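PROTEIN DESIGN WORKSHEET
SECTION A - STRUCTURE
LENGTH: 406
TOKENS:
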């Protein structure tokens, strides 16, 4: 049964009310708190965003060799990504088409995907190739069974999937982010294994924190972050068709890096321009990928919504090609990693308490500072999709009630 709160949320008036979040930043207000807490809104959001947008699931380097695979989950869907013998990257549902066991867990290298329950075997592209003791089963055609597969696109070494077989390609809609990221040569950057965690907050709370220039020298005040002050934030224009957006944040000295020396301790990315040396880039490809591009380190976050008030995240670090071969790499990297993790833990403390605040009856629709330009861009990206989906879904409901009345 739909709750009173949900009936209020999922209404024409609610979706019209989102206009005030997608106007000029000087007049805009934040999204309604229900967008971060309400279970029916989350279900709506799955259709409005996650079922049709490109979702980052990992790095190409996570499946370097034929037979390599990794697993992940987003909006509750278990996914396996493989590299086939033909060197193609494939992404599929990992749900066995016999009785629903998952055919893969974790990461590894295999010849095929063997379901541990009754030993059905799928190829690395998902075709069912063996199903023991099924010869007495009527009309059982092994060839007609496969793991449901998803569209795949590789962008700057990141693997994106799309649940929508009709989704248009991603890269042509990411040119402004790709241009800003070009000097960092992200496709060839290398890094140690990523780490993952589960968190008790809505995915947008964290996405917005990663977007936010306003808190830079407030929440993170101190020697690890003061050289990236909020007043040096700028926000390049974002076109309505763009699939991503970014913030440049100037630094008070060139060659800055998040570590106690405040300067690069690893080899800088080789193609940085003079302008790049004086700034950091915070780039976003909603709803899953957020990146911080620094002079000697890229931090990336893959956000995976798991519920209205929960998410998982993979956190990865990338450095310039060859940097990891330096004998002192481990020690230098530890300097940055310790600092980055301290900054990230300050952010996470806030994320947890913002979620508590958003759940309160006193949660606001607040106003923005000019230093929150990327929140405005995120809101435009979201509201357009929310309103389009609501119109689509309402039209469908009207059509089916008309058909029922005939
Ligand atoms: S559930 Fe996979 S083989 Fe039975
Ligand atoms: Fe932060």
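SECTION B - SEQUENCE
RESIDUE ASSIGNMENT:
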């Amino acid at each position: 049964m739909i709750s009173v709160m949900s009936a209020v949320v999922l209404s024409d008036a609610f979706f019209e009310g989102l206009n005030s979040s997608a106007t000029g930043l000087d007049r805009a207000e934040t999204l309604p708190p229900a967008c971060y807490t309400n279970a029916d809104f989350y279900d709506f959001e799955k259709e409005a965003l996650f079922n049709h947008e490109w979702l980052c699931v990992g790095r190409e380097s996570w499946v370097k060799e034929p037979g390599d695979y990794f697993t992940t989950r987003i909006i509750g869907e278990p996914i396996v990504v493989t590299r086939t013998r033909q060197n193609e990257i494939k992404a599929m549902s990992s749900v066995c088409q016999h009785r629903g066991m998952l055919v893969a867990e974790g990461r590894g290298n295999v010849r095929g995907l063997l379901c541990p329950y009754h030993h059905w075997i799928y190829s690395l592209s998902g075709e069912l190739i063996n199903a023991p003791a099924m010869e007495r089963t009527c009309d059982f055609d092994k060839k007609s069974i496969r793991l449901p597969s998803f569209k795949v696109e590789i962008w700057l070494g990141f693997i994106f999937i799309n649940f929508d077989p009709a989704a248009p390609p991603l890269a042509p809609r990411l040119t402004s982010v790709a241009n800003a990221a070009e000097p960092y040569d992200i496709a060839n950057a290398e890094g140690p294994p990523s780490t993952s965690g589960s968190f008790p907050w809505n995915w947008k709370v964290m996405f917005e924190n990663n977007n936010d220039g306003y808190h830079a020298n407030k929440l993170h005040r101190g020697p690890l972050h003061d050289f990236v002050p909020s007043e040096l934030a700028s926000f390049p224009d974002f076109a309505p068709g763009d699939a991503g957006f970014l913030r440049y944040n100037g630094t008070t000295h060139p060659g800055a890096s998040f570590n106690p020396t405040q300067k690069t301790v690893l080899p800088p990315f080789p193609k940085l321009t003079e302008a790049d040396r004086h700034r950091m880039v915070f780039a976003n490809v909603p709803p899953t990928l957020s990146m911080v591009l620094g002079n000697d380190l890229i931090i990336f976050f893959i956000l995976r919504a798991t519920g209205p008030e929960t998410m998982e995240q993979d956190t990865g670090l990338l450095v310039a090609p060859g940097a990891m071969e330096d004998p002192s790499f481990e020690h230098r990297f530890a300097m940055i990693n310790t600092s980055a993790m301290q900054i990230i833990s300050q952010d996470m403390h806030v994320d947890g308490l913002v979620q508590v605040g958003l759940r309160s009856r006193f949660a606001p629709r607040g106003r923005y500072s000019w230093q929150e330009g990327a929140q405005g861009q995120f809101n435009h990206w979201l509201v357009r999709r929310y309103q389009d989906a609501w119109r689509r879904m309402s039209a469908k409901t009207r059509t089916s009630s008309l058909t029922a009345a005939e």
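SECTION C - NOTES
The longest strand covers residues 298-307.
The pocket of fe (ii) ion (ligand 2) is lined by residues 209, 215, 219-220, 343, 347 (CB under 6 Å).
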